[in-house]
Design goal:
Layout lengths: L17 H6 L7 E2 L2 E2 L1 E2 L10 H14 L9 H21 L7 E4 L2 H16 L5 E5 L8 H10 L2 E5 L9 H6 L5 E7 L11 H10 L3 E5 L11 H4 L3 E5 L10 E5 L1 H6 L10 E4 L4 E3 L13 H17 L1 H20 L4 E4 L8 E6 L4 H10 L2 E2 L1 E3 L4 H7 L4 E5 L6 H18 L1
Parallel strand pairs: 3-15, 5-6, 5-7, 7-8, 8-9
Antiparallel strand pairs: 1-2, 4-10, 9-10, 11-12, 13-14, 14-17, 16-17
Helix pairs in contact: 2-10, 3-10, 4-5, 11-14, 12-14
The structure holds ligand C6P.
Length: 419
């Protein structure tokens, strides 16, 4: 065997203080099946730092009340925490205004909101929606539903055998009928980073609006919605160290103002009568009912945590570990990495000989190593590569080279048992 070995001193990897970061995540400090946990499933959901857990607990212990409703102290504190989190999301993605940050349940709901609220009233037979072949089901099925509802047609830009979007084919599918383009920023099944700024520019030239699925991006790369000039950007808190059940949809103000509400209920109205109801301003127009207030408090704390460490430091550290993992898995006999695009991060999808991915996952779990196996909610990607599923190791800032070494040792055990 060749290639680099074992954990490298943190000082060589950039300014991220690895031991400090690792100790901030209590769930990582446990044994599973008698072995120290090595968590390599952050693509599914990230672990939470203590500051996020504390923010959620603090809200319930001290500030629990409904938002935007009461005049009493607790309601004011809850509202301040909720709206404070909105400002943190705004700053994190560099949106011009908090009015452009809608809280949702996560990326899936953000995409469905945009599809139904922007797309449904506007699209009709003859219109086209363009997506890519590497999309998560959350960025496929909402568009299929919209096509069924409006008569619009779904078009798909293909990927090549490295898992990279074929940009000429993408451009070829853009035309005056293209109304919406929906693309993933970082693929959850392949790890490919799309050249989103270039793709957005081309879509705008064709007159389409663009929504970017940023579920996998937020924990790994800086997001600047103004620099990207995307019309909408969807993200999930739980993939960026925050709680589940909350996320955000960024939308350009003029677009949000022209969109009808997504759901009806409390908080999204200006005035209600049986004859006619008028609606609140964005973002409240899209937030019917009591929101996930504790989740917002945790989401805000998560973004503070990432911002304090700095995405530049995180990228340097993570890329080092990611390159190491790619090299070590690639050198295993019978390993086939699915997704070898030149621009990648955080995710290594692979097969090992004829072994079924779920068997690999089960054997790894017995050794304390948590990975995800299966189609990763990206069945068209699996079809492209002619595989039913893959084993996927996904990394975050709390994983180091020693975790990769443990993964590879566990894979060797799996190889011996299965092949
Ligand atoms: N991917 C994974 O293991 P939600 O569930 O709404 O927070 O995110 C959906 C989603 C949308 N787009 C991409 C690119 C995603 O990766 C995900 C979630 C998880 O890969 C669970 S399937």
């Amino acid at each position: 065997m060749s290639g680099p070995r074992s954990a490298e001193p943190v000082a060589n990897l950039g300014p991220l203080d690895f031991e400090h970061v690792r100790n901030d995540f209590p769930a990582l400090d446990q044994s599973v099946h008698g072995k120290p946990l090595v968590y390599l499933d952050s693509g599914a959901t990230t672990q939470k730092p203590r500051s996020v857990i504390d923010a959620v607990a603090h809200y319930y212990a001290h500030d629990n009340a409904n938002v935007h409703r009461g005049v009493h102290e607790l309601s004011e504190r809850a509202t301040a925490s909720y709206e404070g989190a909105r400002e943190k999301v705004r700053a994190f993605i560099n949106a011009p205004s908090v009015a452009e940050v809608v809280f949702s349940r996560g990326t899936t709901e953000s995409i469905n909101l945009m599809a139904q609220s922007y797309g449904r009233p506007r699209l009709q037979r003859g219109d086209e929606i363009l997506i890519t072949e590497m999309e998560h089901h959350s960025n496929i099925v909402p568009w299929q539903l919209l096509c069924e509802q409006t008569g619009a047609a779904l078009k798909v830009a293909p990927i090549d055998d490295t898992g990279q979007l074929i940009v000429e084919e993408y451009r070829r599918r853009l035309n005056e009928r293209t109304r919406i383009v929906a693309m993933v920023h970082i693929s959850n099944a392949l790890g490919t980073i799309n050249p989103v700024a270039e793709l957005i520019g081309a879509a705008h030239d064709a007159g389409a609006v663009v929504i970017v699925d940023g579920a996998q991006a937020a924990a790994h790369v800086p997001i600047d919605v103004q620099a990207l000039d995307c019309d909408f950007y969807a993200m999930s808190s739980h993939k960026v160290f925050g709680p589940t059940g909350i996320g955000a949809l960024y939308g350009k103000r003029g677009l949000l103002e022209d969109m009808p509400p997504y759901q009806g209920g409390g908080d999204m109205i200006e005035h209600v009568s049986f004859e006619k109801t008028t609606y609140n301003e964005p973002p409240y127009k899209f937030e019917a009912g009591t929101p996930n207030i504790a989740g917002a408090a945790g989401f805000g704390a998560a973004l503070d945590y990432v911002t304090d460490i700095g995405l530049d430091a995180i990228r340097v550290f993570e890329n080092n570990v990611f390159e190491y993992a790619t090299g070590r898995i690639a050198e295993m006999d019978g390993a086939r990495i699915i997704g070898t695009a030149s621009s990648k991060c955080s995710i290594v999808s692979f097969l090992l000989g004829a072994a079924h991915p779920s068997d690999i996952g089960t054997i790894l779990d017995r050794q304390g190593v948590a990975i995800r196996t299966g189609h990763h909610c990206a069945m068209p990607v699996m079809r492209h590569f002619g595989v039913p599923g893959t084993a996927r190791a996904s990394f975050a800032m709390y994983n180091n080279r020693a975790d990769v070494d443990t993964l590879v040792e566990a894979l060797r055990v799996a190889e011996r048992i299965l092949n």
